[in-house]
């Protein structure tokens, strides 16, 4: 394989990363694609392990033909030597020295062996993660995030119970509910906090993406065939059980997002899949010094960040779904290929992708307004509700830090209560802590993107094994 070609490190093998890899490789760039999973596809195209011998994995996915095209393209470029695909590589740090980058990863399931990849540029396609909003009983076995339920089904062909309530807000709830129903789970209720009237107010923006509307209608029709009841403008108030989940209490919401008195109802179930949207993964972008626009990595029309040599695409630049991630990834890959070759790209070459990006961003913005969590959700958190599971910090402790100790931001609450100091470093609880503290969710400013063994840090000066940079 020729090594004099410019070298791009793409972090993340979901839709954005795969599209960027293909676009860059097709235009003369040598690409190293790093991903934590054993197979490409990311969360959206998560595949069951080969040992499970799934006969029809496509039944668990939307837009399977797009996945086949991405997968086959990656295989073709890998065989040609244009792409090196590094699986089970958990990237924890990326740094820039002069005009070169070093991407540090931990190899394998144990995440103990360090690996370093040298590259001329970096493209961040790190995706997003679910926003978790606690409520009484949410730590019971049988309660999981909506995306977690979907990942379990796609990746292991397993479900957590026989009767499920799918609740929260957002477009993810429908495919999760229909996927579980198709797998034989009885859907006791789909509980959506959004107001159906809001769809009418945003009908023009939504109508601009008829394919997306048809996709949602298809999910709704399948759910109807399974005789699942839908409760709109409702929310989960509490989960009940002793050793595991036995039932949930749901209630209607008023116009201000408060629970309406006298509307509570108890629904028996052994699984609760609850989701309230997603947040972008920005840890690596922050360590590289990229500017954030709120919680999103800020990029220009070429998907470039403000750090020279760093591009970003997909959910890390704003939650918008797989189609938007594909468009952004294609643009980022084409731009990186041109810039690494020393020329300004001709943006007319990706005009179709740019047009799609514009429409899909507008659609995503409309959905954000539709699927915002209930305005008064934090009022459901009792003082004895655990908010930070890693450090077992309760809602009462956080409220005390704000009311009596003067904490006014997530970082101060963390210092006073340890909320966010555990293994997940606040990924699970930061949104809830911010809501209870009455402040905005700010960048984490973590030095590393994931926990790193001290032995690995001690060995950094001894030059860890280099991959994909020969």
From TrEMBL:
**Which parts form a coiled-coil structure per UniProt?**
none
For this UniProt record, the keywords arranged alphabetically read as follows:
Oxidoreductase
Keyword match Oxidoreductase: yes
Q: Where is the FAD/NAD(P)-binding domain?
A: 7-317
User: Where does the BFD-like [2Fe-2S]-binding domain start and stop, copy by copy?
Assistant: 386-434
User: Which protein is depicted?
Assistant: NAD(P)/FAD-dependent oxidoreductase
Organism for this UniProt entry: Streptomyces longisporus
């Amino acid at each position: 394989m020729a090594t004099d070609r410019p070298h791009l490190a793409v972090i993340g093998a979901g839709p954005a990363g795969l599209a960027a890899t293909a676009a860059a490789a097709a235009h003369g760039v040598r690409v190293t694609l790093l991903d934590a999973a054993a197979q490409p596809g990311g969360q959206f195209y998560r595949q069951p392990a080969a040992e499970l011998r799934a006969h029809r994995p496509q039944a668990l996915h939307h837009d399977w033909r797009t996945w086949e095209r991405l997968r086959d393209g990656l295989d073709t470029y890998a065989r040609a030597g244009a792409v090196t695909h590094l699986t089970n590589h958990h990237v924890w740090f990326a740094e820039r020295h002069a005009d070169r980058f070093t991407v540090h990863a931990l190899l394998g399931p144990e995440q103990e062996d360090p690996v370093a990849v040298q590259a001329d540029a970096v493209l961040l396609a790190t995706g997003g993660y679910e926003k978790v909003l606690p409520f009484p009983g949410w730590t019971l076995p049988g309660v999981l995030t909506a995306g977690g339920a979907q990942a379990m089904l796609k990746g292991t062909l397993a479900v957590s119970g026989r009767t499920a309530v799918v609740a929260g807000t957002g477009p993810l709830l429908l495919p999760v509910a229909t996927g579980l129903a198709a797998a034989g789970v009885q859907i006791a209720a789909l509980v959506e906090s959004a107001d159906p009237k809001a769809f009418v107010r945003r009908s023009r923006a939504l109508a601009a993406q008829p394919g997306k509307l048809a996709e949602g209608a298809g999910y709704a029709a399948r759910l109807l065939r399974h005789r699942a009841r839908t409760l709109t403008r409702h929310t989960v108030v509490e989960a009940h059980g002793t050793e595991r989940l036995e039932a949930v209490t749901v209630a209607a919401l008023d116009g201000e997002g408060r629970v309406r008195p006298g509307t509570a109802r108890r629904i028996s179930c052994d699984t609760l899949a609850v989701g309230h949207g997603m947040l972008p993964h920005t840890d690596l972008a922050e360590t590289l010094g990229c500017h954030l626009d709120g919680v999103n990595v800020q990029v220009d029309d070429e998907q470039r960040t403000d750090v020279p040599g760093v591009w970003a695409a997909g959910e890390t630049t704003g939650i918008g779904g797989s189609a938007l991630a594909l468009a952004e990834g294609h643009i980022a890959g084409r731009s990186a290929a041109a810039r690494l070759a020393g020329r300004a790209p001709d943006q007319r070459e990706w005009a179709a992708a740019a047009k799609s990006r514009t429409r899909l961003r507008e659609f995503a913005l409309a959905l954000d307004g539709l699927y915002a969590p209930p305005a008064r959700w934090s009022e459901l958190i009792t003082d004895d509700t655990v908010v930070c599971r890693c450090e077992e910090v309760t809602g009462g402790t956080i409220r005390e830090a704000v009311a009596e100790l003067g904490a006014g931001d997530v970082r101060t609450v963390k210092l006073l209560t340890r909320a966010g100091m555990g293994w997940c470093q606040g990924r699970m609880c930061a949104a809830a802590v911010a809501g209870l503290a009455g402040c905005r969710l700010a960048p984490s400013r973590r030095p590393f993107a994931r926990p790193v063994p001290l032995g690995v840090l001690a060995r950094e000066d001894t030059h860890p094994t280099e991959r994909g940079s020969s």
